[in-house]
Amino acid sequence: MSFHLHEGTVPLLVSMPHTGTDIPSALQGDYADRALGLEDTDWHLQRLYDFLPALGASVLRPQYSRYVIDLNRPPDDAPMYPGASNTELCPTHFFNGDALYKEGRAPSLAERMRRREMYWQPYHSALAGELARLKSQHGFALLWDAHSIRSEIPWLFEGRLPDLNIGTANGAAAHASITEAVAAACAGVSGVSSIVNGRFKGGYITRHYGRPDQDVHAVQLEKCQSLYMQEVAPFAYDESLAQQIQPVLQNMVTASLAAARKLYAR
């Protein structure tokens, strides 16, 4: 199985598409040696979001690294952010722009299509199926797409990223009241900056599955890793930092769910 799905009891699915850490042994020799350190992983999100089981949320996580396949990119590999540096369906660069593969070893078109079929499609089938199950049971579904990233990556964005980056595809992926509730839950938190639909407006998952007119709402949260961990190797989890931001994250998630439930209250 290339993913792990926990089926919850409330109309909330949390997707963590970039937490996988496996690279198939047959592929490892193609990568630059540095790639096996997996530096661009969304590290420790399952631990950071350890409050989700108590909320009754469904959780979907991949087994394989984003270096194998980027589950938050469209199947046709169209750029998500035209005019900016983009990572691909099968990434060929580290986040600093360096080559991810040894010279001449980047995946061919046939290999990219194989990975799409083997890793991308099962994850998205599970994601769509779980949203359909939740919508059938509750009348609506809320998708929270959870991410993290280093706070400074010049190849991808200028300067330092705001700490909490809320994305709803410029409002197309979620009802405005949900976006407002998420933003309000982190507004004014001392020492924590936030923005709505800034550099990160939501990737493929948020944009594709967020369909308010079909009673499915999606929110992406891209957070700086400096909030809860060491941003350089060995990418250690920092419990003292994490304990400060976890209540904020929990408030944001619960606020989004409360706002969605209010929309569908009978």
Your description of this structure?
The protein is α/β, with parallel strands linked by helices and 266 residues long. It has a single domain, classed as 3-Layer(aba) Sandwich (Aminopeptidase). It contains 7 helices and 7 strands; from the N terminus they run ββαααβαββαβαβα. It has helices at 25-28, 45-48, 52-55, 109-138, 176-186, 204-209, 239-263, and strands spanning 3-6, 12-15, 58-62, 141-149, 164-167, 194-196, 216-224. The protein has a 7-stranded mixed β-sheet, with helices on both faces. Helix 5 links the parallel strand 5 (164-167) and strand 6 (194-196). Helix 5 (176-186) runs antiparallel to helix 7 (239-263). It is globular and about 55 Å long. The mean pLDDT is 95.
Strand and helix layout:
Blueprint: E1 3-6, E2 12-15, H1 25-28, H2 45-48, H3 52-55, E3 58-62, H4 109-138, E4 141-149, E5 164-167, H5 176-186, E6 194-196, H6 204-209, E7 216-224, H7 239-263
Parallel strand pairs: 2-3, 2-4, 4-7, 5-6
Antiparallel strand pairs: 1-3, 5-7
Helix pairs in contact: 5-7
